[in-house]
């Protein structure tokens, strides 16, 4: 079947990939570990681990999970850590047991963390020591039996200080002790097939609670191969240096930076705190960086950091942006500084994530999410589910081997998100132009994109509504130069003494930082339909 976007493919890009080339992600990563055993796989704060060391250390951790804690195929194991050396070792250890990794944002509030651990039925969690205070608050309300605590200096041994584990946690296990014990244990092989789950990737819930996208080994194998085939010779196996500043618990960095560049034998430079821009730039200066991935705010922030423009970009093959739209002004400035435009892609947690990318051979910037990667079909549909004519607006619906199995224990939500003929409905409204390129023009869902993270208004409204003095409220996203969009909340007060700061403090306590409203406005009444539904779109005029 021919598609308009095939004409835009670079000469090397196939129309289809073989999603069953590897039986599972573990086989793919093990093959790379052997092939590139002496090459540096990860660097963090200047300390490094080779591919061979990663294989050995992950084996030890897997043996501990399996032999001591009884983790078996299909068991959910949470990993709650920033970009630190422990992350990829723990991840590969979990996967080698056949476990399902539940990726957890270490900045979550107690409420958010409790929901995710409870919903996923997690019994074992690997947590960064700096996040254990939040864990300690809720652990008694969850099914957690085993807490493994990791410090920043674990596996680095450079004397790096790390926050202590919360003293109220009962019998936490030190990650390094688990590794040491595992080194004395056998690891039994586990048969993993493509349909087995690899990750539960939680994504914002339209009902106020996040839900877990069930991603399979085949989903991730497919997306790695789709990315590889699309990028072609822009990937240099065994030579690339990729900088990873986007958190690895985010599906973009997890698939592109972590899994893909491990397969390619790349050296992955982990940035633990990208908000420390001067330190970020200093770390970049030590490497011949060939690949960088980011979100619009990260690109923009780097270019406003002294010293960044003075770096050597002669080895930079490409920069890839996702998670949120890349602004033309930012890409233009990026090209001025680095010599190359940013390649914008598009995807979601539910699609592993990449659905579309702008062709790598295209040197100009295009205000577009690009074209579908191989083995991916995009169908734009109206509210009745019928395909719209080329050039007309429609909801972007996607089918391909990277599309999730469904939502964890949410058959209702899965049925709502999938069409009868097997397409996933993204909630984004798009247009395909006459050349086959796609542009996002609106959102069907009232989702807000803050620095690449999804924020659903219902969740914000549900939390604000619990505050005494709030009669009713509504939340929208508004343009923001720094974060792309920002959260704005309109509140009708039942108590005149309620202040903006009181609302903000309440939100800081119960919501992750990026969800906290940037703008809080008190209003006499909210615009509503004749049946009493709040009209969020009308609030954009206020």
Structural description of this entry:
The protein has 542 residues and is an alpha/beta fold. Among the domains are: 375-443, Roll (Luciferase, domain 3); 448-539, ANL, C-terminal domain (GMP Synthetase, Chain A, domain 3). The protein has 15 helices and 26 strands. The chain has a nine-stranded mixed beta sheet with strand order 2-1-11-10-12-13-14-15-16. The chain has an eight-stranded mixed beta sheet with strand order 7-6-5-3-4-8-9-19, with helices on both faces. The chain has a four-stranded antiparallel beta sheet with strand order 17-18-20-21, with no helix packed on it. Helix 2 (51-67) packs across helix 3. The longest helix is centred in the first third of the chain and has 17 residues, at 51-67. It is globular. The termini are far apart.
Helix and strand arrangement:
Blueprint: H1 25-35, E1 40-44, E2 47-50, H2 51-67, E3 76-80, H3 86-96, E4 100-103, H4 110-119, E5 124-128, H5 132-138, E6 146-150, E7 173-174, H6 175-182, E8 197-203, E9 211-216, H7 217-231, E10 241-244, H8 251-263, E11 267-270, H9 277-284, E12 291-294, H10 296-303, E13 318-321, H11 328-338, E14 342-347, E15 354-357, E16 371-372, E17 377-381, E18 394-399, E19 406-407, H12 411-417, E20 424-432, E21 438-443, E22 448-450, E23 453-455, H13 457-464, E24 470-480, E25 484-493, H14 500-510, E26 519-522, H15 536-539
Parallel strand pairs: 1-11, 3-4, 3-5, 4-8, 5-6, 6-7, 10-11, 10-12, 12-13, 13-14, 25-26
Antiparallel strand pairs: 1-2, 8-9, 9-19, 14-15, 15-16, 17-18, 18-20, 20-21, 22-23, 24-25
């Amino acid at each position: 079947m021919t598609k308009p976007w095939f004409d835009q493919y670079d000469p090397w890009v196939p129309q289809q990939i073989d999603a069953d080339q590897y039986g599972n992600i573990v086989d793919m990563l093990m093959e790379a570990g052997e092939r590139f055993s002496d090459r540096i796989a990860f660097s963090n704060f200047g300390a490094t681990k080779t591919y061979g060391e990663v294989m050995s250390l992950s084996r030890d951790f897997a043996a501990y999970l399996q032999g001591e804690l009884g983790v078996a195929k299909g068991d959910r194991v949470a990993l709650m850590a920033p970009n630190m050396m422990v992350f990829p070792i723990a991840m590969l250890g979990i996967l080698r047991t056949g476990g399902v990794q539940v990726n957890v944002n270490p900045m979550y509030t107690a409420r958010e963390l409790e929901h995710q651990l409870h919903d996923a039925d997690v019994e074992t969690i690997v947590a960064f020591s700096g996040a254990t205070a939040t864990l300690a608050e809720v652990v008694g309300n969850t099914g957690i039996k085993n807490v493994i605590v990791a410090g920043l200096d674990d596996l680095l041994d450079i004397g790096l200080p790390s926050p202590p584990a919360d003293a109220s946690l009962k019998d936490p296990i030190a990650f390094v002790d688990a590794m040491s014990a595992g080194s004395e244990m056998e690891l039994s092989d586990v048969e993993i097939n493509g349909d087995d789950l690899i990750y539960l990737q939680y994504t914002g819930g339209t009902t106020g609670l996040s839900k877990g996208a069930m991603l399979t080994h085949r989903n991730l194998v497919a997306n790695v191969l789709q990315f590889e085939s699309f990028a072609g010779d822009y990937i240099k196996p065994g030579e690339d240096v990729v900088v990873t500043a986007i958190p690895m618990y985010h599906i973009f960095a997890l698939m592109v930076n972590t899994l893909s560049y491990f397969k390619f034998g790349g050296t992955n430079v982990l940035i633990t705190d990208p908000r420390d821009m001067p330190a970020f730039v200093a770390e970049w200066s030590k490497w011949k960086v060939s690949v960088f991935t980011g979100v619009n705010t990260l690109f923009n922030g780097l270019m406003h950091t002294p010293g960044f423009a003075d770096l050597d970009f002669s080895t930079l093959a490409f920069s890839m942006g996702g998670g949120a739209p890349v602004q033309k002004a930012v890409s233009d400035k990026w090209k001025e500084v680095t010599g190359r435009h940013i390649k914008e892609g598009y995807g979601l947690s539910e699609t592993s994530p990449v659905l579309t990318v702008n062709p790598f051979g295209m040197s100009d910037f295009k205000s577009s999410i690009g074209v579908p990667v191989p083995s991916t079909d995009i169908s734009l549909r109206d509210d009745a589910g019928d395909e719209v004519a080329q050039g007309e607006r429609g909801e972007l619906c996607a089918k391909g081997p990277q599309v999730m199995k469904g939502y964890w224990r949410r058959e209702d939500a899965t049925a709502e998100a999938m069409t009868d003929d097997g397409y996933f409905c993204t909630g984004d409204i798009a247009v395909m132009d006459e050349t086959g390129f796609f542009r996002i023009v609106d959102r069907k869902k009232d989702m807000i994109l803050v620095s690449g993270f999804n924020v659903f208004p219902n969740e914000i409204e549900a939390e604000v509504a619990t505050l005494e003095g709030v009669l009713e409220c509504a939340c929208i996203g508004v343009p923001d130069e720094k974060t792309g969009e920002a959260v704005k909340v309109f509140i009708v007060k039942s108590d005149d003494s309620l202040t903006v700061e009181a609302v903000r403090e309440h939100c800081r306590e119960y919501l992750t930082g990026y969800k906290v409203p940037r703008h809080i406005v008190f209003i006499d009444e909210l615009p509503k339909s004749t049946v009493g539904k709040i009209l969020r779109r009308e609030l954009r005029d206020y």
